[in-house]
Amino acid sequence: MVTQEDTVFIQGMNPSTTEDELCQHFGAIGIIKTDKKTQRPKVWMYKDKATGQPKGEATVTYEDSNAASSAIQWFDGKDFNGATIKVSLAQRQNTWGGGKGGGGG
């Protein structure tokens, strides 16, 4: 796993929370990065694969890592939209390392 210094992972959200509410709340601490493809804020709300219902989890990617650190200090363990949330630095699978590439010939 690789820690993403500019991205926070939010758990325990009220499942009815919208992306706009998330952007408004977490955007108060720093500038949320814009996705180059969609031109929308870089926010991902997780859904249950089987039901398609929100899981109450999300990631928010900031322009810089200082904002992500501040978001953890300000929002972790606090109430957001009627639920106490857990905020931590996001981690992703390390898809780059590992095996040696085969090639040539």
Automatic annotation (TrEMBL):
The entry's keywords: Nucleus, RNA-binding
Gene Ontology biological process: regulation of DNA-templated transcription
Recorded GO MF terms: RNA binding
The species is: Pararge aegeria
Q: Where in the cell is it found?
A: Nucleus
* Top-rank taxon, per record: Eukaryota
- Output the Gene Ontology cellular-component terms: nucleus
Q: Which residues form the RRM domain?
A: 6-92
The name under which this protein is listed is RNA-binding protein cabeza
**Which SUPFAM superfamilies does the entry mention?**
RNA-binding domain, RBD (SSF54928)
